[in-house]
Amino acid sequence: MEIKEFHKKYETLHERIEARNSITKESGHYWGIKKLTLRDQDPVKFDRFNSRLVAAVLGARETAKYVAASPAMTGMGELVFGLQTREGDVPAGSLGLVGHNSTMPIIVESFAKLGYDVSAGINEGDIWECNDPYYGAPHAADCFTFVPIIYKGQHVGWSGGVNHIGEVGGLIPGAVPTVAPNVFVEGFDFPVLRSGQNDELYPWWLNQWRRRTRAGDSNVLDCKMRLTGCLMMRNRILEVCEEFGADYVIQGMAEVMERERSTMEKRLRNWTMPGRYSFPLVQPVKYKGKLGLLFPEANKDWLLHFPLEATIGNGRVKYDFNGASHDDWHHYNMYLGSFRFGVNLAWYPVFIVGENMHTANIYLMEFDRPHGSVVNPSNPFVGTPSSAVMGCRTGQGLMMRVLTRALFSKGYLEETFAFEASDFNIYGMSGVFEDGTPWGMSNFSLVGAQCSAARAFMDGGISDASGQNPETDYGESEEWETTEPPLLNIIRGITKDACSHGKYRGGMGFTLAHIVNQPGPVFSANDGCAMNAEVTSHCCGSNGSYPGLGHASLFIRGTNMAELMAKGETPGTYEELQDWLKSGKLTAKEIIHCKGETVAHPLQHGDIFVILAHAPEGWGDPLDRTAQNIEADLDRDLISAGTAKKIYGAVATQNKEKWTVDLAAMEKTRQKLRKDREAASVPASEWWKAEREAVLNKRFHETVAPIYRDGLNNEKWGRKWRDFWALPETYSL
Amino acid sequence: MAKQQDGDNLATKENLLQLIEGTLPWETSRGLMRMENKDEDRFQKYIEVLQERASWPDKILVRIAEHLYVVQKKDKSRVVKCTCGQEFGDYRVNWKLSCRVRVRKTEAELAEVISLDKVIPNPELVEAREFYCPGCLAQLAVEVVPVGYPVIFEMLPDIDQVYREQGMPLPDQSPEWFEDRTTEQTRLWAKGVK
Amino acid sequence: MGTEKVKNCLMAFDAGGTMTDAFVVQEDGSFTLGKALTDKVDQSRSYMLSTKDAAAAIGVTSEDIHKTALSINYTGTQMLNAILTGTGRKVGILCSRGFEDMAIMDRGLTWLGMSFQDRMHVATHAHPPALVARKNVKGVCGRLVGGSFYAGNHLESGTEVIPLNEGQVRKGVAELLDEDVDVIGIVFQCSYANPKHELRAAEIAREMVSQKGKKTIVETSYDISPRRGENMRFKSILFQGYGAELTRESLRLVEEAAKSEGYRFPIQTMLAYGSVVNRHYPRLYEAVVSGPIGGLIGAQYLLTEKLGIENIVAADLGGTTWDVGLVVRGQIGVKSESDFARHRINVPVLSIDSIPGGTGMVVHVDTEFKRITLGPESAGSHVGTCYKWPEITVGDVDLILGYLSEDNFLGGKIKLDKAKAMHELQTKLAEPLEQDVYEASAGVLSLLHSKMADQVRDSILSKGYYPGDYTLICYGGSGPMHMWGLLEKLDVAAACTVPWAAAFSAFGAACACYSHRYSKTVSCSYPHAMPDEQKLDQTKRINEAWKELEEKAYRDFAEEGYSKDKVQLNYGVQARYIGQLDSWLAMVPVTRVNSIADLKTVIDSFEKVYTSIYPVGARFPEAGYAITDVVLIASVDQVKPSLREHPLEGPEPSKKALKGQRDVCHNGKWQKFDIWDMDSLRAGNKVQGPAIIEHPMTTFVVPPDRYADVDKHLVLWYKKKDS
C-alpha cells in the first residue's frame, strides 16, 4: 500500500504514528515497504530526488548558523536541521548536532499525543517549539523549532531545527545547571507550544527569552536562527514538491527511510559479532550539604548505576537497562528523548551510508528501560539538565564500546574507534562587573574536540573526536575570551601523563587554565563536567587497559599570581603549575580540588581556575607496549620517564631530545612486574569468597548500597546478583 | 562518495595481519575504513590469519579479546584459550573466574597504575580489579567497580549464529551454546568446591 | 615586424602541478594559447617554453612579445604543493606561553577538506601534517586583552595585563637560531588588538639575528593578518614562512627571464581574493590559491564590465572539480577565512563553492542497493578507461554516447579508445544495474547534471538569491560539453560560454585589478543604551584603524613602485548585531566616522547587506550593533584585455565551418548532430541544434531544442528555439 493510502486510512496524526509503529514492527520494514517502487522504477530520478532533500537540509544549516549568537553555533556548529515526514521521522538531516535528529520524531509524537493537530491544526506559517525533556528534548538547553511543510494545502512533512543555547535560566547559571533536583529550578522548560504564526515569532515569545534566561538577546538570536533555517529548508522542499509532485515526495521520503533502515541492517549483520555484551557505568552525583534545607529530599549523594546489557543479532540490537538506579531528585533523570539522542550518536560514525543523516536506525532497536528507573522516570517533575549527558554516555559511550568489541571480534579492527561521548565539559560563570553590570555565560570549548580512546591497532588521538558533533572544533581562545572578560586563558595544552595506559595508549587529556583578572565585586565559576574522577569513565577498561580517566578541576584561591603577572610570569603547563606550588614560587591560601561537577566557587583577582579534561581508555596490557611507542611518547614529552618505568617497565635514557629504551633492561623489569602481579594476586575463587563475605555482611558505602537495593528490586538484575554471590533468598538490603 | 577503489586491493590477508600486529601504515588503515562495502569474507580471512599466527593447533572459533580466543577442542567442547596456551574452560562461564585477581583498594595502590594524581578514583566508592592470565600473567581485563559488584561478563558471543550467517553452520549447533553458565561456577564455589 | 604583430599584448600564466598555460591577448583582443610541462626546479624555464609555444603559434618570437608586453600575470600552485608535500622552509614560532600545543592540537580541525562521508566517519579523521616541529614552538609570557562584547563594562580592547617577558623572548629566539630555522614567526594572544608585544619581540629577534650574522626572516602575526583567532593567525604565519618565500623566489626567477628578453615591468601574481600584486608584496601567502579565482574575475570583467550584466553565476567544469562562484550586483563575495591543504587560515578568499565533478570523475555502482555514485576520485588528465585510468568515468560515458569525439581530444593529439570504454561500461555499469548501457550512461549524466545544478542552485539560494535573476557562464575544459544537461535542470536568465573556455582562468588573471585588501579587528559595540559621546569615543578606534591601514597601503604600494596619487581607496566594515559571532562585510560611503549621522550611515550599509542574505525575521536591531573589523581596499589602475568587437555577419555559418556529422545518443535517442569548427564561426552566426561545436581545447554541445548565437565578442549564447 502506498503511504498516502495510510494517510487516508488513519485520520489523526497520533493514529498514523501508532499505525507506523505497529506496521513497521510486524513487517520488519518501515511502513511495511518491502519494495522500493519509486527507486526501482527510476533509480537515477530517485537519487536526484534524494540529493535534493540532502541539499535542502545542508543549505539550511550552512546559511542559518551565522545568525546565531554563541560560539557554539558559528564556530562549533552546535545545531542541526532535519527534514521530517508527517509522522516525524527524519530521512535527511544536516551535519552538526547529529544526534538531536533522533529527538525530532519524539517531539512530533508528543505534538500528536497532545492532539494539537486536531485542536490547533497543522497550518501554513505556524511555528512550533519545545525544549521540555518530558516531551522529547534531550534537556532544556536543546531548543527545538519545527514548522509544517504544506504544499497546495497538503501536509507533506515538517522542517525541524535544534540548537544548544548558552543559558537556560536555571538555579545554577549556564546551559547545564549541575544542581537541579526538580524541573522547577532547572531553567526555562517549555512544552510543545506555538511560538508564532505566518512565519513570524510572537513578540511576547521573544520577551519570554529576555525575562526567563540570563542571556536573553543571545537566546533570541538562536531562536531566530532556528526559524531562519527551518523556513529556508521548507521553501526548498516546496520547490522539490513543485518538481516531483507531493505524492512522490511523501512516498519518496518513506522509501529513503526504508532504504537506510535496510542498508543499516545489512551492515549490522555483516560487520558485528552477534552476542551479548555487558558494559556498565556508575555516575557520582553530589548534592549532600548543597541544598539540604531547601530540598531535604535531595540532601544526599548518589552513585547512579547504568548497567547496559546489549544483545546484537539477526540485524537487530537490544538495549537492556534492568537494574538501573531509580529516578530521584537530581539532574540525571533520562526521559526518552535524551536516551534516543545518545543512541543515534553511537551509530552515525560507522553505520550510516551515503549522505543521509537519518533516524531509521530506531527501527532496528529494542529498548528495555524499566519504568521508574533513572533511564525511564515515572516522576514527571525530577530534574533533567544532565539527561542529555547521560544519553550520550549510555546510548553512545557504552554502545560505542560494545560495537568496538563486536567489530574487533568480527575482524573489522579498522573500525574499533571509541571516544568519550560528551564529557560535557561546560563551565559556567556569572558575576557583576565593577560598574554594576550583571552578566552570565557558559563556555563549551572543551566539548568541541576531545581526545579519543586507543584502537585495536593504534594509540588514541589528540583533539580528534567530539561526542555530539563529527566536525570537531574547539574554537579560538580569543573568540571565547570575548564572552568571559574576567578569565585570562593561560594554558590550553596537553596534560603530561594524563592518559589510560595500555599496549596502545588512550588519547592524552588536556589542561585548560585561567587566571581570574579584575572580575569586579562578584564573580564565581562552576565546572560542569560529568566525567567524575571519583570513578573511572566506565566500569571496564579495554582488553587489559585501565578504563578512561575522569575529569578534575582546581580552584586555586588567594594566590600571589598578581605579583608573578607583574613580573611577566605565568605557568605554561599543568606540570609547571604543580612545580611552582611545590617550590613555593606560586603561593595559595586555599586549593579546592574537585572531581566532576562542582558548585559555583567565588573567585577573585589572581585566583586560578584549572580544568584537567578526561582521557579515554587504552587498549591491551601496558606490558605489551613496544619500546618504539614508549620512546615516541617520551620524545614528544607526553609521558614522563618515571611513568615509562613504573607502568611500562621501560628503562629509558635521553640524549639531546631523543630517548632510547634499553630493551634488555625492559625485558627484565617486565619479568619482575609479572612476578609482582603473581605475588599480589589470588585465584578468582579465593577472591570471590572474600568479596562474598563483604556482600553477606553488607559492608557497602552508604552511597553504594542503593545500587544493590535498586538492583534487588529488579527481578532480572536481582536474580543475576543473588546467583553470582550465591546469596540466600532471604538476603535483602 | 563510494570508496571501492581504495578498498578493493586493501583487504588482503597480508594487510589484515599487519593490522592485527599494529604495523599497518595509517593511510592503508584509513583506506580500509573508507571501503564503502567491506569485504564480506573478512571474518573467514581474520580467523585464517589468527590461526596461522597461533602457537597452538586448536581450531579458533572466534576472538573475544586481545589475548583470548574461543577454540574448539577435539572433544567438540568450546573453551577460552589465551595466546600463551592457557585455557579458561567453557566460554559460557565468564572466563574472568579462571583468572588470578588483584584488587586495588587504596589510593596508594591505585596511584601505581594511574599516573595523574588528581584523577585517582575514590576508594570509598570503587575498587580496581585486575584479571591476569594464570599462564603468562598478561593483564587481560580491568574493572573499576563498587565493592560487591558482580564480575562483568563482557562478551558472550553467539557463535552458532555467526557461522550460520557466514554460510558455514557448525555441525553441533544448539541454542545451549548461547547461554550464560557463570552461576554454575559460583554455585559450586558456594558449595566449597574449588 | 614580429613586434608589430604582438604590440602591447597582455600575458597570463597558470602554472599548474603538471602543465604551465600561457595566454597571450593581443591588442585586437584575439588570444593565443601556449603550453609547456611545469619545471618544478626552475619555473622560469617552463615559463619561457610556454611563452615560446604561444609565440610560435602567432608566428613571432618570445622576445617580440616581451619587448612590448604591457603586463605579465603569473599564478601557480607552488605554495600549496609545498604545503601538501611538506617541502617548505624550516619555521620556528614564538607564541604565548601555554599555547605551544596549538601546533599539535590544531583546534581539533581534523576533518577539513574531507568528503561528506568521511566527515561523518570520525575514525578516518586525522590532523594534517604539522608545518612546524612542536619543539620549535617556544612559549613567551605576556598578555594584552582582546576586549569583550560587554563593551565599556570591562577592560578596553588592547589593555596590557601581563608585561612581555623579554628574557623568555631571548631564550626562545636563541634556541630557534641554534635550530637554524629559516623563519621565526611571532604570534601572541590578542595581538590583533594591540601589536605592542609582537613588535617588541620581533625587534629583539631581529637584533639577535643580525648579531649572529644570520639571514633568518622574522615575521609577526600582526603584519600577516591582524584578525581575531590565534589558531588561524598561527596557520597564516606558518603558510607565509613555510611557503610564501618559495613563491617569491620563483617570481623573481620568472621576472629575470622576462626582463632578459626586454620586458619592462614587474611580474604580477594573483591573490586568493582576486587582486594582483607583484613579488614585493609582503603578505604573499595570500597568493596561496588562484586557480578557480581567475575564472570568476574573468566572468565579472567580461559580462559585468563589458556587457553590463550585474548578476552572474560563473561555473567551471574541469577534469576534477565543479567550481561555482557568484557576481552579485556586480560584486564578488569574499569569505574572511578558508581552508587550504586541510589547514584553516584567515586569509580573505573569493567565495567559490567546489564539489567533485568533471569528466574525469569516477562512476561507482553499488550493486546491492543499485546506487550510482560519482567521485570523489578523478582520473584527471587520464580521462577514463578510454585512455589511461582503470575505472569507468564520466569521460567514458561522454565518449560512447557520442558527445566526445575519439579523434578530437586535445585537437586530436590524444586518441581515445571507444571500444574499451564501451566494454568497461557494459560490465561495470550496465550489468549491475540491469539496464541497457546507453540508458545507464544517460542515467550517469543525469545524476552528474543534477549535482551540478544543485550546486549552482545552492550557491545562489543559500545566499538568499534567485537563480532566475542570474546569467550563467560555463567554462573550463568540459564546461561547454555538459552545459546542456545543467540547463535541463536549472532555469537561469541566460547562459553562455566562450571559445577560450578552456583557458578562461588564465584570461581572468589578465583581467584582475591591481589591489590590496586590508582589515583590522576593532571590536566596537553600540548597545542602544550607550550614550552618544561614549559611542563616538569608541568610534575613534575605527578611524584610527582606517588611518593605520591607509598608511600600510601607501607603504606597500610605494614598495611595489606606485606613488600615493595613483592609489584609490575604498572603505568598509565587518558588522553584526551584538551577540552574533559572525560578521558581514559592508562597503561604506564614508572614509571616517565623525558623527552619530556617519555611524548611522555605516549601520544602514550593514543592514542592507544583512537583509539581502536573510529573511527580515532574522534581523535583530533591538540588540544593538557591533563593528568587529574595518576593511580597506586599495587599488591602482591596471591594463586589461580589450575585447575586440567583430563585425556581425549573417546567421548562416560558412559551409567550411561544418566538419560533418556524428551519431549521438542524446537522452536515450540516437540522432545525427552537425559537427562545427568553433574557430571558423563568425560573429552573428547562429548554429542550430542538434550540433556539436568543436575546438581543439573544448567541445560545445547544442541539443536539438537549442541553438548557439555568436555575438560580436564571439561569446556563444546558448538559447532555446522558440517552438
Describe the structure.
The complex is a heterotrimer of chains A (733), B (194) and C (723). Chain A is an alpha+beta fold and 733 residues long. Chain A folds into four domains: 3-261, no CATH class; 418-625, no CATH class; 626-680, no CATH class; 684-724, no CATH class. Chain A contains 22 helices and 23 strands. In chain A, helix 21 (705-713) crosses helix 22. The model of chain A has no long low-confidence stretch (mean pLDDT 93). Among the domains of chain B are: 1-52, no CATH class; 98-146, no CATH class. A four-stranded antiparallel β-sheet of chain B has the order 1-2-3-4. A three-stranded antiparallel β-sheet of chain B has the order 5-6-7. In chain B, strand 1 and strand 2 form a beta hairpin. Chain B starts with a helix and ends with a helix. Chain C is of the alpha+beta class and 723 residues long. Chain C is built from 18 helices and 35 strands. In chain C, strands 13, 14, 15, 20, 23, 24, 31, 34 and 35 form a nine-stranded mixed β-sheet that branches. In chain C, a hairpin with a 3-residue loop joins strand 13 (312-317) and strand 14. The longest helix of chain C has 31 residues, at 230-260. Chain C is globular, with a radius of gyration of 27 Å. Chain C starts with a helix and ends with a strand. At the A-C interface, helix 4, helix 5, strand 7, helix 9 and helix 10 of A face helix 5, helix 6, helix 10, strand 22 and helix 14 of C.
Mean pLDDT of chain B: 93
Shape of chain B: globular
| Largest interface: pair, residues per side | A-C, 106 and 90 residues
Provide the spatial order of strands within the biggest beta sheet of chain B: 1-2-3-4
Helix percentage of chain A: 25-40%
Rg over CA atoms of chain A: 26 Å
- The parts of chain A where pLDDT drops under 50 for at least 5 residues are none
Number of domains in the coordinates of chain A?
4
Largest sheet of chain A: 7 strands, antiparallel
As residue ranges, the low-confidence spans of chain B are 1-7
Global geometry of chain A:
globular
What structural class is derived from the secondary structure elements of chain B? alpha+beta
Quickly list its features.
heterotrimer; A: 733 residues; alpha+beta; 4 domains; 7-stranded antiparallel β-sheet; 5-stranded antiparallel β-sheet; 22 helices; 23 strands; 36% helix; globular; B: 194 residues; 4-stranded antiparallel β-sheet; 3-stranded antiparallel β-sheet; 7 helices; disordered N terminus
